[in-house]
Amino acid sequence: MPEQRLSLRSEDTTRVVRLRPLTQILGLGGITVMCAWTLVASSFLVIDTVSAGGSQDQVMRVQASFEERLNQLQLERDARAAEALAAQNRFAVALDQVSQMQTQLLTSEERRREMEAGMASVQANLRDAVAERDATLASGDAAGEDMTDRSDEFSVALDILSGELRSAADQRAKAVQEAEEARLAAHELQVERDQILARNDEILTQLEDAVTVSVAPLDDVFRSVGMNPDEVLRTIRSGYSGQGGPLTPMSYSTRGNAALSQGETKARQIIVTLDQMNTYRIAIEKLPLAMPVRQNFRYTSGFGRRWGRMHEGIDMAGPVGTPIHATGDGVVTFAGRKGAYGNLITIQHELGTETRYGHLNRIGVKVGQRVSQGEHIGDMGNTGRSTGPHLHYEVRMKGRAVDPMSFIKAADNVQ
Q1: Predicted TM-score (pTM) of this structure
Q2: Is 110 exposed, middle or buried, given 0-12, 13-18 or 19+ CB atoms closer than 10 A?
């Protein structure tokens, strides 16, 4: 590049500025670097904006899908439990029928034995009568006629007993057949009941695995923001611990206790895990996990040391008047001007968390007002110690400043 000369003229003097080739190269290089930095920063801003919206939609879709699958598994488990109860009732009825048939069979067998004993007695008496008749035939016709009449009576009695015995034998055979059919039906019901219980156990296992897997990301949410999950659960449960209602006597079944007790154990564990998930859900709704700025913005400063001092929040730059939203449910504890913050809004959330929104152009809430997550609370500005319009966003836990990005990123783990 050739050397350039710039003439600066005033009313009475003229100054000449020489631009050497090295100076021109440095100037062009600086302009190029500035343009490249602006292009890269804008690209990162667009990518962050698109990914934030897509991540939130994906979280909602995954949560809706999981809840739908969980409801389906619960409905299927309830249906299998009803089928198992119906099969158990049918099995109990079949056992009662088998018991009745066995009682009838024993009664028929007892009657058959009595009839056989009576028939044996009649046959013995008949043989005695025949022998007596043969012995007394020579004694006279009158005696012979009497013996003939007695023989006829015994023959009639024998025929009656033989008929009763055949009838008892037929009833016994019928009772044996019905008892065998009842045993087969009871066995089929037992197999059906075992299959239903196995399927019910499989469904309970799937439910248990599903809820167990779903609790892990929720547990990570609180650990990622520096909270103890056990302490969070205790705090939430202490505020949701009401009990009451009338008490009714419990009924117990003595059939199938082993299988049912195992299913009840899994069901109780699922209920405990679901309660844990529900408690986590309540706690997450109380945490400031949302974004305070929903329109286009640019991160200009992160959490940590800056210029030799501690920067206790993050800065999000955008145009003056950009809407600022509450990141969680809470109560406004400060709304006004405060030193280097400029116009400041402070919101106290549950679980010991607090959020601060500084350098605002307009404040749209009052002290004591309860706000909801996503509610419009003010507009971005350039008040206080600020070099340009931006939002200074802080999150504090029990008075100690923590990185707000840990809360923003934790929302990606909520499924």
Answers
A1: 0.47
A2: exposed
